[in-house]
Amino acid sequence: MRIFRHLARLVRTTAFKLLAAYLAVFAIFAVSVIGYTAWHTRELIQNQVADDLDREVRYLAEQYHIGGIQRLVYVIDRRSRRPGSSIYMLANFQGEVLAANVSDLSLGLLDAAGTRFTTYNRQDDSGAGRSHVAFVQVFILSGGYRLLVGRDIEERDTLRDLVARPAQWAVVLIVVLGLAGGVFVTRRVLKRIDAMTATTETIMAGDLTGRLAVSGAGDEFDRLAHSLNVMLERIEALMQGLKDVSDNIAHDLKTPLTRLRNRAEEALRTARTEEDWRGALETTIEESDGLIRTFDALLMIARAEAGQARDTMTDVDLADLTENVAELYEPLADEQGLDLTVTSEPVVVHGVRELLAQALSNLIDNAIKYGRVPDGGRGRIAVRLARAGSDALLTVADSGPGIPAADRERVVERFVRLEASRTRPGSGLGLSQVAAVARLHGGDLSFADNGPGLVAVLRLPAKAGRDGGGAATDTASRR
Amino acid sequence: MNANLDPDTLTAMRLLLVEDDRDAAEYLRKAFREAGHVVDHAADGEEGLALALADKYDVLVVDRMLPLRDGLSLVAELRGRGHATPVLILSALGQVDDRVQGLRAGGDDYLPKPYAFTELLARVEALARRGGPQATDTLYKVADLELDRLAHRVTRGGKEIALQPREFRLLEYLMRHAGQVVTRTMLLENVWDYHFDPQTNVIDVHVSRLRSKVDKGFEVPLIHTVRGAGYMVRAGLA
After folding, report:
1. ipTM, 2 dp
2. b vs e for A397-426, b when ≥16 Cβ sit within 10 Å of the residue's Cβ?
3. Which sequence positions fall in the DNA-binding region (chain B) (predicted)?
4. Do B196 and A331 touch (CB under 8 A)?
5. How far apart (Å, rounded) are the C-alpha atoms in residues B160 and B145?
6. Are B97 and A479 a contacting pair at CB < 8 A?
7. How far apart are CA A456 and CA A396, in angstroms?
């Protein structure tokens, strides 16, 4: 029973169905070729026989003309004795047989001239009579003599059998071998597919770290397994992102919420004057604004990582954007004792203008917050946009204390704020936002030492072409 | 033609509020009324559309997620029928692509929830003024401050003030809405065309730079800070 179920499964597979169809087409083709060849050979032999008969009849008629009926009888007699001779019969107008080497041909055959098939009995070695098919030609000589010359065409049929029998076997063999091959191939395919299905099932059961095996053969299954693995990686990253967001919401939103609640309770308990009430309410609003900001930042990161903003992407003139955002921050930097400079090359990227602007703004904001020179002197922030191969490199360098090499990786992680900066305002999500925007655009965010200071490098894939400024869609200068 | 920018001409507005949340609607009605405006209220999209089509309003304030007909569809339908009444869309969905959708549907402004009422009021007043004749004027005038939009020239008391292009646009926007509160986000959106939250108050520094050029050395300051809301250009002290 099991073997039937197994076979039924094999037969249902696409590979097997394809193979069966292919086999059927091939078998039909083989049968037609063999059939056509056999038919053609038979025709050829038939024509050959007809030609031979024709020639012999003409020769005998000639002999009759030369030497009359005696010569003809003599020639026929002599020819009859040769091995493998033709069939001869000569009769006069009364139907008396004058010469013949076959006894039982019906006389009626001689009635009309022309060619036809007939059967006759031939004495073989064992002495038993066996019916043979012959192709005969009847010719009427002057004087009412009728001459029949014929050929046994058994050979022709033997040849046909000679071709047809092996051909039948060949077709049977092709079908059997084909089916066996089909089962073999299909079983192999099924084995790979079953392995994939088993892995996917464990992944579906919740183990997102599972990956499909890649055999290394580089075949279509490997390609499929590779694509699925990339997809799984993406899903795992998204799930991790979702988990991070919910963890962060739980941890970092609850802290300010608790603070908000405590302040409100404290105000209820201790506030006496209208000024106290007003102050408490104002702090409450401030705290809730901070919460909203954090929440918005989290949502933005989650959305960017899910790639939802992709359909709002357009060609963005990054040079224009860089100059605009730097211009927006220049007075603030100046006020904070920092000189902000911008240098840019024409670069166009495909992206979300608003998010790119926010990313750069976060980097500059960060540089202003943490890039001040420790001794109180005048600091520098250099914003630079350059093209490097197929990438756009947007760097923001400051002259502040920088970040120790060991901490640079951690900086990008959500909510991670270095101990030293815990006291500064901000949600701590700024750089995570930049990293999320970079990932959305297929780029990345990294940090390097500016000796002294920090260099933040936002790498984005640039649009091809040196200068796409004309096609750029930056609306900052539009009124 | 000189624009009359006397703030006292800003009369009461007729607003239509389409909001399904009872508490929020009640709060907004009260707050708008206190600000001197007349508010009609619809609790779902169909009622909102019917009222907007039947009556003449200065501004529609439409929540994005509404029963029967959502806010975007309401605006699209209204625009499809040729109604040009300014619409401000309120929404809990505040990300970049949400805003783009809102403006594509025909909204004139998009404010994510939660918002400060001062922000909403300033935006609604700016929208109402937008339909007025001042928008097409080429010369803005507040007291002795004049801004020529064609010649890109600013003078105060007849003396020319040299401004950077961005400072010019900042002043232009403030003067177009003279007598109205203009919030920091409105300035960021309309002068810089950015809608993100800059975390630090970068706008304040720009305004103070502008102020040092426009008001310094003059008896009467024209650029005023409105506490807890934003800025306002007006003649004389409030």
Report:
1. 0.81
2. bbbbebbeeeebeebbebeebeeeeeeeeb
3. 137-235
4. no
5. 10
6. no
7. 5
In whole angstroms, what is the distance from residue A1 CA to residue A6 CA? Answer: 9
Nearest to B20 by CA among B42, B38, B50: B42
- β-bridge partners, A455: A397, A448
Domain count, chain B: 2
E strand segments, B153-219: 153-156, 159-161, 182-183
Counting the structural domains of chain A, the total is: 3
Distance of alpha carbon A30 from its chain centroid, rounded?
Answer: 32
Q: Rounded to a whole number, what is the distance in Å from the CA of A202 to chain B's nearest CA?
A: 36
Q: Say whether pTM exceeds 0.90.
A: no
The per-residue pLDDT for range B20-29, each reduced to its tens digit, is 888 888 899 9
- Which chain A residue has its CA at the smallest distance from B97's CA? A309
CB-count burial class (<10 Å; 0-12, 13-18, 19+) for A262: exposed
pLDDT, tens digit, for every residue of A321-341?
A: 999 899 899 988 888 888 889
Domain containing residue A169: 1-207
Q: What is the CATH number of the domain that holds A247?
A: 1.10.287
- Whether the Cβ atoms of residue A76 and residue A99 lie closer than 8 Å to each other: yes
DSSP for A271-301 reads --SHHHHHHHHHHHHHHHHHHHHHHHHHHHH
Cα separation, B4 vs A186, whole angstroms: 86
| Neighboring chain B residues of A325 at a CB cutoff of 8 Å | 194
* Interface touch B97/A308, C-beta < 8 Å: yes
pLDDT tens, N- to C-terminus, chain B (238 residues): 334 444 444 578 888 899 888 888 889 999 889 888 888 888 888 888 888 888 888 889 988 888 888 888 888 888 888 888 889 988 887 777 788 888 888 888 888 888 888 889 888 888 886 444 456 778 888 888 888 888 888 888 888 888 888 889 999 888 888 888 889 888 998 898 888 777 778 889 999 999 888 888 888 888 888 887 889 888 765 4
For residue A296, the chain B residues in CB contact (below 8 A) are 94, 112, 197
* Closest residue in chain B to residue A311, using alpha carbons only: B97
List pLDDT tens digits, range A186-245.
888 888 888 888 888 888 787 777 787 787 777 888 888 888 888 888 888 777 777 766
Q: Is B104 on the interface with A (CB under 8 A)?
A: no
Residue A419 lies in a domain: yes
With respect to residue A212, please indicate whether it lies within any of the assigned structural domains.
no
B window 42-81, beta carbon within 8 A of A: none
H/E segment holding residue A383: strand A379-388
CB A296 within 8 A of CB A229: no
